[in-house]
Amino acid sequence: MKKIAIDAMGGEHAPQAIVEAVLSLVKQLPQTKFILFGDKNKIENCLIGVKCERIEIVNTTEVIDDSDEPVKAIKQKGDSSMVVAAKYVKDGQADALFSMGNTGALLACGIFIIGRIKGVKRPALMPTLPSSSNKLGFNMIDVGANAQSKPEYLIQWAKMAELYAEKIRKIAHPRIALLNNGAEFDKGDALHQEVYKKLLKEDLNFVGNIEGNELFSDKADIVVTDGFCGNIALKTLEGTSQVIVHEMKQSLLNNGIIVKLGALLAKHGLQSLKSHFDVARYGGAVLIGLNAPVVKTHGRSDKRPVYYTLLQIDKMLDEHLIDEFKKYFLNNN
Amino acid sequence: MKKIAIDAMGGEHAPQAIVEAVLSLVKQLPQTKFILFGDKNKIENCLIGVKCERIEIVNTTEVIDDSDEPVKAIKQKGDSSMVVAAKYVKDGQADALFSMGNTGALLACGIFIIGRIKGVKRPALMPTLPSSSNKLGFNMIDVGANAQSKPEYLIQWAKMAELYAEKIRKIAHPRIALLNNGAEFDKGDALHQEVYKKLLKEDLNFVGNIEGNELFSDKADIVVTDGFCGNIALKTLEGTSQVIVHEMKQSLLNNGIIVKLGALLAKHGLQSLKSHFDVARYGGAVLIGLNAPVVKTHGRSDKRPVYYTLLQIDKMLDEHLIDEFKKYFLNNN
């Protein structure tokens, strides 16, 4: 029986969205147990009388919120849903951790409680993002777990992302590119020039540099980046799409009745645009390099992203991804 | 008489778009002379018989194109439109340089031919970008002139951008933010932590860190960034908006006749969206820190961006911006 530890208190729609996702999955995943950590009363209220021996509740009394300083919070809020859930994973009472709470605190739980895989220098955060012509999208690693990166970190991330893409996304020989400020081999600062050289020497399908404007262009299945630039690129991408969608709505609503009518007629087309950029189906961002799958979705997520993220975690357990990572680092250190 | 040296051969629509812009401006700017560098026959063909003593053509026989390696190109193509134009500026025969050719080569012309202002450590590239609620947009510096940046460079860029925003964009006490991976003062890698501390000590209206998703949010009039991340952020921003606009068109065209009709009715609304993100009216990206205004627009630009960029250059000359820079560095070194 696979066991997923679920921080039921993180995120704007907790625990409702989380419990709903679990209820949708409990029949679909008969070999999986869902352990929900949080305020027992609140969780039970969302369960609306459903009883299932594969849904367990562990009552916790504290919650880490977004304003908490990560490392301090995991030390001081020892009975928080996130920390207790992480301890279950550490002690082997659960196999994986899900949360949509404070990203920094989850990272701290991952590093200080669950622990790194032996040989991994730095864990990294890896989401799956949409591509304009490839339904499988692409992975970007690291998008912000590390403010300061060294060349050897990026090589390890590339390798782990490759294994993830092969095992979980079922992409044979995934194409790996380096986010850089130009296409040519000698582009970038000292860090990126060094990473380029190292990637060439690895047994990876390295396809060269990729620029910010090509991220959606299906040039790569995996984009490797230092955590600082990766964070800025990801947030710029999110901010740009949000502002355009917002302005599009305003433009269609505030330009008179004809435009409004047109927008109504075009609704189906605009919805197909939305579904094109629907990232929920890809699941959450994986905190890669830890002794167990630790995955997070956006704090604003409703049921749907949670549902897909739990499916993603279940698949990672089915495919024994962490064992694959361990095997690799045992043979390459 | 102000004199603008114009590389008439760079960009996809050269020399047509460039000559058209000059023809539109020649009456509007009676105190300005336009010196066009390039293939005399081609330029004269675009001039369609118009004669004006303030439009001069300097025939050149070579063109630097996008595939040329910048430093090599300016050495080997001594009779290229860009290099000859830059030499006119260096020799005082012109006061400013416009080009929409190879950015790297223009940067090389700026540094090696026109030269840096005494005291400026590194020139930087600064475009004006749209904001969601402020018609004046914001400046971002550096977006890629430097792959490797040091803290002191960013401080100088902040200062020059401040003078630009005050003199040219007429913003009093422009708000300056640092592009970083989080809001708190201790965010970022060593470089950005150091820059944060230094910016606090300067006589600038420093408003703290800004994240990638806040770029459009009118939190700052100037965003300071190292050239590597700035390049990635700018290109990510461009790529994201291009892909969304492309997919939006596809969604509206390929979802049946009703959607198409809706799109037709909503056209006016969608055009207002387009004008919201119209960056042409801001002019071009300034190569800041040189002994003369050097400004470039995108190689794909048609007449309109060229028109606004030439206006921008003219304003920089009217306001004696370079003298302001020189004065600052004379007193602060």
TrEMBL record, chains A, B:
Example GO molecular function: phosphate:acyl-[acyl carrier protein] acyltransferase activity
InterPro entries the UniProt entry points to: FA_synthesis, Phospholipid_synth_PlsX-like
Domain of life: Bacteria
Class of the enzyme per the UniProt entry, highest EC level: transferase
Biological or metabolic pathway of the protein: Lipid metabolism; phospholipid metabolism
Short name of any one Pfam family annotated for the protein: FA_synthesis
SUPFAM superfamilies cross-referenced by the UniProt entry: Isocitrate/Isopropylmalate dehydrogenase-like (SSF53659)
Entry's EC annotation: 2.3.1.274
Localization: Cytoplasm
PANTHER family the UniProt entry points to: FATTY ACID/PHOSPHOLIPID SYNTHESIS PROTEIN PLSX, PHOSPHATE ACYLTRANSFERASE
Family: Belongs to the PlsX family.
Name of this protein: Phosphate acyltransferase
